[in-house]
Specification:
By secondary structure, the chain is mainly α. Helix content is 81%, strand content 0%. The protein has 6 helices and no strands. The longest helix is centred in the middle third of the chain and has 96 residues.
């Protein structure tokens, strides 16, 4: 047979509950700090990565832009709406890449100043709030513990006084019953029994008054202890938790919103820039590029023409056929001389 469970003191139970509450509040506080530290460290590292990437991209773009300095980008005005030269598209791509790099530098500053630095300040503020809340909770716990301790003292006094009152009352009733029945012991007279009965009755009345007073003290202490518990759990605890949190969750929401919004804006801007370059790259055509090349290099379009330079006193500037057969053969030779290069050029082109 197992022994009966050990009776635990009320004050000890209360102290255990209070310690558990304080422990859970510390755990919640630490959990919030861990999330805040993660967000701050992420924003800090993200800022470094974004800055290094943007600076490297700017350096790369500047390197290729310097190579293009002094180079003129020729476009044909009549066909500029339908076609783009390779040089123009390449220049626009570098310019758009530079714009994206500058925006990424701005994003790096945003991650650092609006998230990492502010999260650091919020962490210090939350630690200070926790210290203040912990002090107030400790005071409230001590007040509740004191009221429960007073209640246990009042209960102990009430139990003791009530036990004595009930014992005296039982003795008074027993003496009264013996007096009514006329039961007198051989060594006790009736007058002694009457005196004893009156004495016990008077003592019972006095004990009853003390019991009533002790009961009232116990009930008042009980009401005060319960009132402390009700106020603490319905009002004080909520206010303390509100003080501990402050605007922590609003700021966490803001930090996450800034991180997300910055990423969205950066990517949307980058997409807009390169969609324009993509559209221009679709306008590149060999025929247009060749026109630009020929327009910029007139040496390929300016043909050389030769004219008959007669000897002095020779007034004939046309073909004169003296022998029909010889004239036909000469014309055929010249025709073949002209046709062979043209045919070779056609084959090369094919």
């Amino acid at each position: 047979m197992q022994p009966p469970p050990r009776k635990v003191k009320i004050t000890q139970v209360l102290r255990n509950v209070q310690n558990e509450q304080l422990s859970r509040i510390h755990a919640k506080h630490q959990s919030d700090l861990d999330i805040l530290d993660d967000i701050r460290e992420f924003a800090k590292q993200r800022s470094i990565i974004e800055r290094v990437c943007a600076q490297s991209l700017q350096k790369l773009v500047a390197q290729f832009q310097q190579k293009r300095e002094g180079a003129k980008d020729v476009e044909i005005s009549d066909e500029n709406k339908e076609h783009r030269s390779i040089a123009t598209v390449w220049k626009n791509l570098l310019n758009e890449m530079d714009k994206v790099a500058r925006l990424r530098l701005t994003s790096a500053d945003t991650y650092s100043s609006q998230v990492a630095e502010r999260a650091k300040v919020e962490r210090l503020a939350k630690v200070q709030r926790m210290k203040r809340v912990e002090e107030i909770i400790s005071l409230n716990h001590e007040e509740m513990y004191s009221s429960v301790h007073e209640m246990t003292k009042a209960k102990k006094s009430y139990v003791e006084v009530e036990r004595i009152a009930q014992e005296v009352k039982e003795k008074a009733l027993e003496a009264e019953n013996r007096l009514k029945k006329g039961t007198v012991r051989f060594y006790q007279s009736r007058s002694n029994l009457e005196k004893t009965c009156a004495k016990l009755t008077s003592r019972s009345d006095a004990c009853e008054k003390r019991s009533c007073h002790a009961r009232n003290e116990y009930l008042l202490a009980l009401g005060a202890a319960n009132a402390h518990q009700v106020r603490y759990h319905t009002i004080d605890l909520k206010e303390l938790l509100n003080t501990l949190d402050g605007d922590f969750y609003k700021k966490i929401k803001n930090y996450l919103s800034i991180l997300s919004t910055t990423e969205v804006e950066t990517n949307v801007f980058s997409r807009t820039c390169f969609e324009k370059v993509l559209a221009e790259s679709e306008m590149i055509a060999r025929e247009y590029q060749l026109k630009i090349f020929l327009q910029d290099n007139l040496v390929f379009t300016k043909m050389l023409q030769y004219h008959f330079d007669p000897v002095e006193n020779d007034n004939v500037g046309i073909l004169v056929v003296t022998d029909l057969v010889e004239g036909v053969n000469c014309i055929c030779d010249q025709t073949l001389y002209i046709s062979v290069p043209v045919l070779c050029g056609t084959l090369i082109a094919k």
